[in-house]
Amino acid sequence: MARIDLVDLAHSYGGNDAPQESFALKPVTMTWRQGGAYALLGPSGCGKTTLLNVISGIITPSRGKILFDGVDITPLSTQKRNIAQVFQFPVIYDTMTVGQNLAFPLKNRGVPKADIDRRVAEIGRLLDLEPYLNRKATRLTADAKQKISLGRGLVRNDVAAVLFDEPLTVIDPELKWQLRSKLKALHRELDLTMIYVTHDQTEALTFADTVVVMHDGRVVQSGTPAELFDKPAHTFVGYFIGSPGMNILPAEVRGREAVIDGHVIALNRAYDKLPAGAKIEIGVRPEFVEAVAPGPGLLTAKIERIDDLGRIRFARTRLGDAKLAARAPAGFAGSDGSAGLKFDPSHVHVYADSLLVEGAA
Amino acid sequence: MDKTVNQKAWFLVLPVFLVVAFSAVLPLMTVVNYSMQDTFGNNQFFWNGVGWFKELLDPSTDLGGRFLASLGRNLFFSMVILAIEVPLGIVVALSMPREGWTVAACLIILALPLLIPWNVVGTIWQIFGRPDIGLLGYVLNAIGIDYNYVSNEVDAWVTVIVMDVWHWTSLVALLCYAGLKSIPDAYYQAAQIDGASRWAVFKAIQLPKMNRVLLIAVLLRFMDSFMIYTEPFVVTGGGPGNSTTFVSIELVKIALGQFDLGKAAALSLVYNLIILIVCWVFYTVMTNAGVERKVQASSEPAAEPKPSAALKPVPALKPKEGVA
Q: In CATH, what number does B69-323 get?
């Protein structure tokens, strides 16, 4: 168990001389605290698996350092790193029983037999694998196999962290939910640092207390699910998290006002020192835009359709070229094809070149 | 189950039946026919019943003695080359590169011996091992090792075995390499994470994943080595004495040297049967090892196709008839 620090860590499959834009993992400095449940969230190809493999030592980073409790372990091999990792597809040692599979990481490290048996029994119990412990591991179902893989990741109680690389991809949706809750429970019970890679925001938000969002090889934001929702640090985070994603609209921002198509939208904070020449946009979650009957002083948008999600309805509208989703209150039908938009000033954020700008109070 | 019974469907099997009859059954039956008779040339045949078979299995007779001795030599030879080629092939496959241009280079170099015709291999080693002009024989004698495969039985055996290892280890290595290549990277990564040593990786991942190709390798090498003829015939001619006379060499001596068609036919039938039985036993034992594992794990009845076991070694029939 350890705190993990990444110091100016970067990796390029093309070597360090490649232009930085092509790096699979762009320089990142961050800290994973001991005992945390982290999710590494991002679309396919954003560098999350690369980051994970760098931490576990499968890939040697082309730049930077990794510290476990302040000790530089960058040059150490995976075996010496004291880290566990579970892969996307189940890995089973065919000739061994389920119990032997679980014992394998301990046996390789010369743990005394009594301790191994105790640990295997415990993990078997936690993962509901007890009835299978003496059976051969081949021919079990995919999710039982993946449970074994998970078990091998969790069986060592002295690891710095357990890394999960989209471990539930092969599992049925129903079981997926159960296993995720199980992992969450295991996290509480075993007090392990867990890093969970996924491209599924529900999975990330339900599992983790800190979600790290990656985009194009860069860590764009790390925070609690609430922070990611309320205050996305990057337009990508706003767009990627939440369903539907955040509305991003090009606007002119002056002081406490944003101007779209000549309409003024009030802002809660003052934005006087915006970088010159930057692309200025405002971002607001659909939950904080209300679609009402068009009226004076309201930005008017064309309604394309209204999505009824049961608990909530969203009006999909169009403002010139930009699309915008807005909450449609009960009783709003938008029958004339257009809607007035009421923005909640406290939830309208300003972005310069996609990065959040903190206004002055 | 209500299945429509249509006896006319048998006609659809007829073409295959005819082809098999002409290519396998009829030639085999000629051999069976010969094995029951004796001939003194001039196409005159005399009925002998199971006489040849009795003689064949009785070591006190000339035929039986020669057959059983050569059979013993043959089995010993097969065991020795399997014991060398299989582990060696695995080691070679494990030490081959996984990527880059060296892969192609290794594959080509390994495949080269396989591309050389049997009698050329024999000729190469026959000359290579000669003490007067052969590089190997000359050098060995020059450094003080008294090596002469023409006069020394042990030297003859060593030469024949080394030659077979040189010729066929590549096959085992290539098969194993194919097996190794099919193991996903995730297995190696997981083993790294689990702190597995090189040996543990081999035992827990590589060997189990290779067992299918190893089964094929063992079967192929056993059948081939049990039927070996050309190479030892070219190198040692079965000598010195009878020390490297394998069953096929003995068979040719009887059939074409002495023109004892009856004895030769009986011998070739028994020879054939031994190969079939040994291959069948090999196959069942090695596939059953896998089946048991599966039955144990799933408790659902694992219906492994058995009939194919009987079909597999059939190719072994063909070359035998050619010899007889």
A: 1.10.3720.10
